[in-house]
Write a structure and sequence with these properties.
The complex is a heterodimer of chains A (602) and B (292).
Chain A: E1 3-10, E2 16-23, E3 27-31, E4 38-39, E5 50-56, E6 59-64, E7 70-72, E8 75-77, E9 79-83, E10 88-92, E11 95-101, E12 107-113, H1 126-129, H2 139-163, H3 211-215, H4 227-233, H5 239-250, H6 259-262, H7 278-284, H8 287-290, E13 312-316, E14 322-325, H9 342-346, H10 351-358, H11 371-374, H12 389-393, E15 400-404, E16 407-410, H13 416-429, H14 448-477, E17 489-490, E18 501-502, H15 547-551, E19 554-555, E20 563-564, H16 584-589, H17 597-601
Parallel strand pairs in A: 1-12, 3-4, 19-20
Antiparallel strand pairs in A: 1-2, 3-5, 5-6, 6-9, 7-8, 7-10, 10-11, 11-12, 13-14, 15-16, 17-18
Helix pairs in contact in A: 13-14
Chain B: H1 4-10, H2 28-46, H3 58-75, H4 77-80, H5 91-113, H6 121-154, H7 159-176, H8 182-192, H9 201-206, H10 213-225, H11 235-290
The chains are: A alpha+beta (602), B mainly alpha (292).
């Protein structure tokens, strides 16, 4: 009955040293205390940890004495009976005890320390433990994961969503679109409904947006000018423009002049930005250098380089008038057919002002006449209606000639033939005032001769009365007459006329045919600040403000003027009769302007 | 020393061996990169691009092309650093250029965007690039400041020596604790079983280990030693002194680990995000021409 102990320890260079001892005892004590038969210096063990007893030739029992157990073949137990011929592996703390049996029947306990003394004493790979390896996923792994995630999410999915798009596309803007992450910015207000439907404009992959895509909706937009002339007009691009052109040509972008050149998208929600003036001045800044036959002046900036206004004026009045454009620099006169001195009507003193005060109660006049008393704006406020005789003049310039039973008869304005006919009818149907002798109210003169004169005078006048109409007609159409005061009248026979002719009056509502002017946008200004009407003594004077007048407020697009004005404020690229397109932002922005210097002085 | 002469001859004029990559050749690359950025900024102001600056103008294309070439070249440092050479195109030159041209990329790329940002792949690429650059700036900062702190903390010890010192203390603790009853021995074991390189990333970067086994073991053992005189016989007194030494050693080791972690952590952002950036850049370029 004995135990054979084999304690194995390692030398510094890793070799095993075996110390064997035979203990001829039936029972061995095991523990951390030095008195034990098997002394294991292991803090995981109790000082007196276990007993190992020989039960018979081939059986030993292991029994824990304290509260801690031991491991047998990996299971923690407190007592075990072991067949030494079969063998077993026990574990006490950091020590392993292998049980076996020698040929003589003695139980062999092979003891080996398997755990290091401490965690730090275990073998460490210095490069690893002193670095962040193990604490973080490796750089390579993270790199692959992130790169793949981005390539899938932002490249593969968008392309897939483009390629797998059904032909009958029923998506709306709220449907999540795979290629939405490609959009460089929101679309403008007008195109908001197309948000997420990239292929509406980007019709083919790697093919830039073509005009045809725009024209599927914008069908009736016409060109600015014939393409060949535009090509001739365009200035040679600078270095940057050439570079851009090169890139565009290399990647198959259409040449300059495409819709998207001016109408940029993905520039942010809200109204589309107005086209900057540079897009116009590329051609128009130095247009005359290239288009020798153009009638247009060069225009590079409203504030500094813009031709004088050239309104369309009537040069020859009459039934067959002639119009031509003339620069305001030449101070052109326009014969509009009227003799109308503005100065007289707007004067603060004199007959007109007096008349206005007299009529204050009936008409809506002030102490003096104002522009608005005669000039009425159009419904949209952009322009003014032509002055209308019946509405705007007649309250003072009466054409009344007879009262019948309280009803005033007036000559018909605008119809000279009717005027002539009415006057003739008047003289035919009325008699001169009847003398008292004939039953009239006139004072009777004494004597027979007087009596005879009354007869001859009255009946003579009555007989000649119809022919008096000619005198009245002549008077009306001649100097001092109702028509002649305002109108240019040609008498019969002159110019081969059969009768009296009144030259038609020309009151254009628009002088600037290629530029847009909106009176409503200028309602914060007084009329006189632009139109010098109070000083105009001649109806032929054109009261249009010139370029300098506009420039007191308006400057170029990037100027510091009160109203920076790009070309598009007044001009339209796709020219038509309507107003140029105005961004909504500018419409809202209309705020009271500072009073102009001229106004402050008065 | 015949072998050294050619090496010295290959050195660029004005370069001292001890110059770091930051002050290489009298800040040559700092000057070049500054000039580069100033030219870019001035031209941005002067060039009148219509309707406004963005990536699609000719100026935008130019900046974008310069930017992408720069990014690719900067990425190549990862390959270049594996071959250390001297001379005009030495690794030091290359690194110096990498740092300063990388910084100038902030200007180039920002001007390329024309300050138009959004929630899209384009801005993603920009954001990733900025993240790479910012992590790079962090890296430069720690490279400039931490090595001296690291050296002060080491007290002439190598990493291996620090670990060996710890092991020596552990062995002594183990031996000294042998006579102790089990509950006290368990406390010592708590210190022995403590992993000096344990704790997560936060502990490593902050240097704080609130659940430190050694500190807890010492606190607990002082319940016994606190009201006993130090007779020189008591094994607990020896253990207390050993735990004290171990704590000091651990503090030094942890400071060392913290500084080393700071030196390393930025690369865990800088490198993977660079590859994420390359992917986003690819998506950016493809998408721009896909939906052109």
């Amino acid at each position: 009955m004995s135990f054979l102990l084999r304690q194995i320890s390692l030398t510094a260079d890793g070799r095993d040293i075996v110390r064997a001892a035979t203990l001829a005892k039936p029972q061995l004590s095991l523990g951390r205390a030095a008195e034990n038969d098997i002394h294991l210096p292991d803090l995981a063990l109790e000082p007196d940890h276990a007993r190992i007893e020989q039960i018979d030739d081939r059986t030993i029992r292991v029994r824990a004495t304290g509260t801690l157990g031991f491991e047998l073949d990996g299971r923690t137990i407190r007592s075990a009976t072991i067949d030494t011929t079969k063998g077993a592996e026990l574990r006490f703390g950091g020590h392993r005890i292998t049980v076996s049996r020698d040929d003589d029947g003695a139980a062999i306990l092979t003891i080996r320390r398997v755990d290091a003394v401490s965690e730090a004493s275990e073998e460490k790979e210095e490069a690893r433990v002193f670095s962040l390896v193990g604490l973080l996923p490796s750089k390579r792994l993270t790199a692959w994961a992130m790169a793949l995630a981005i390539l899938i999410g932002f490249l593969a999915i968008p392309i897939w969503s483009y390629a797998s798009r059904p032909t009958d596309d029923t998506r709306n803007i709220f449907t999540v679109a795979g290629d939405k992450s490609w959009s460089s910015g929101p679309l403008s207000q007008a195109h908001h409904a197309l948000e997420g439907k990239c292929e509406t404009c980007h019709q083919k992959a790697f093919v830039s947006v073509r005009d045809s895509a725009c024209q599927t909706c914008h069908k009736d937009v016409h060109d600015h000018a014939p393409a060949t002339r535009i090509a001739m007009a365009r200035a040679e691009p600078g270095f940057g423009g050439k570079l851009l052109g090169l890139v565009a040509a290399t990647f198959g972008k259409p040449p300059e002049g495409a819709c998207v050149d001016c109408h940029r998208e993905h520039e942010g929600a809200g109204p589309m930005q107005p086209t900057p003036q540079a897009f116009c001045t590329d051609c128009h800044g130095t247009l005359r250098d290239r288009l020798k036959d153009t009638k247009l002046g060069n225009a590079a900036d409203f504030g500094t380089d813009h031709p004088q206004f050239m309104p369309l004026i009537q040069t020859i009045a009459g039934r067959h008038p002639r119009f031509s454009r003339a620069s305001l620099d030449a101070k052109p006169m326009e014969d509009n057919g009227l003799k109308f001195p503005h100065a007289v009507h707007l004067s603060k003193t004199g007959g007109v002002a007096r008349m206005a005060r007299t009529m204050k109660g009936q008409a809506d006049y002030g102490d003096v006449l104002a522009c608005k008393d005669c000039h009425k704006p159009t419904a949209d406020g952009v322009r003014f209606l032509p002055v209308n005789m019946e509405r705007d003049c007649q309250s003072c310039h009466s054409l009344a000639f007879e009262t019948i039973g309280g009803t005033v008869r007036t000559l018909r304005h605008g119809q000279p033939e009717q005027v002539i006919a009415d006057l003739r009818a008047y003289f035919r149907s009325t008699t001169p005032a009847t003398p008292l002798a004939l039953g009239g109210m006139a004072r009777r003169r004494p004597g027979d001769y007087a009596q005879g004169r009354i007869y001859s005078a009255y009946f003579g006048a009555a007989a000649a009365r119809p022919s008096r109409a000619d005198d009245a007609i002549r008077a009306v159409f001649s100097k001092g007459g109702a028509c002649y005061d305002c109108h240019t009248v040609t008498p019969p026979q002159a110019n081969g006329n059969a009768s009296w002719q009144v030259t038609p009056v020309n009151q254009p509502m628009r002088y600037m045919m290629n530029g847009w002017f909106d009176h409503k946008a200028h309602r914060t200004e007084s009329c006189e600040s632009c139109h010098a009407a109070p000083k105009s003594h001649d109806a032929r004077q054109l009261l249009l403000p010139n370029l300098d007048s506009c420039r007191t407020c308006h400057g170029g697009e990037k100027s510091k003027a009160d109203v920076p004005s790009g070309c598009a404020m007044c001009h339209s690229y796709h020219v038509d009769d309507g107003a140029p397109w105005t961004p909504a932002a500018r419409k809202i922005k209309e705020k009271p302007h500072k009073p102009r210097a001229a106004d402050r002085e008065t | 020393m015949a072998t050294r002469a050619p090496a010295r001859a290959r050195r660029v004029k004005g370069e001292a061996l001890h110059d770091g990559f930051l002050r290489y050749a009298g800040f040559r690359w700092l000057k070049i990169a500054t000039l580069f950025s100033v030219v870019a900024m001035v031209s941005y102001m002067l060039v009148d691009v219509t309707p406004r600056h963005n990536g699609g103008s000719w100026y935008g294309y130019t900046m974008g092309t310069i930017g992408v070439i720069l990014i690719l070249w900067l990425t190549l440092l990862g390959l270049r650093k594996r071959a250390m050479t001297r001379g005009r195109w030495s690794l030091k030159t290359w690194t110096s250029a990498h740092v300063y041209l990388g910084l100038s990329l902030i200007v180039i790329a920002t001007l390329h965007t024309g300050f138009q940002m959004g929630w899209n792949v384009h801005t993603l690429a920009y954001a990733l690039m900025m993240l790479v650059i910012l992590s790079g700036i962090f890296g430069i900062t720690v490279y400039a400041t931490i090595p001296s702190a690291l050296s002060n903390n080491r007290a002439e010890m190598t990493q291996g020596q620090m670990l060996d010192a710890l092991r020596a203390i552990d062995r002594q603790l183990h031996d000294a604790a042998q006579p102790l009853p089990h509950d006290q021995a368990a406390l010592v074991r708590q210190s022995l079983d403590q992993a000096p390189f344990g704790g997560g990333l936060v502990a490593r970067l902050s240097g704080r280990y609130p659940r430190c086994g050694t500190a807890r073991a010492q606190t607990a053992l002082r319940h016994w030693t606190g009201d006993h005189p130090d007779t020189g016989q008591e094994p607990l007194e020896k253990i207390d002194a050993l735990l004290e030494r171990k704590l000091a050693m651990l503090a030094r080791l942890r400071r060392h680990l913290k500084l080393k972690a700071l030196l390393e952590i930025w690369l865990y952002v800088h490198v993977p995000v660079t590859f994420a950036l390359l992917a986003a850049l690819t998506a950016h370029i493809v998408s721009v021409f896909f939906y052109w």
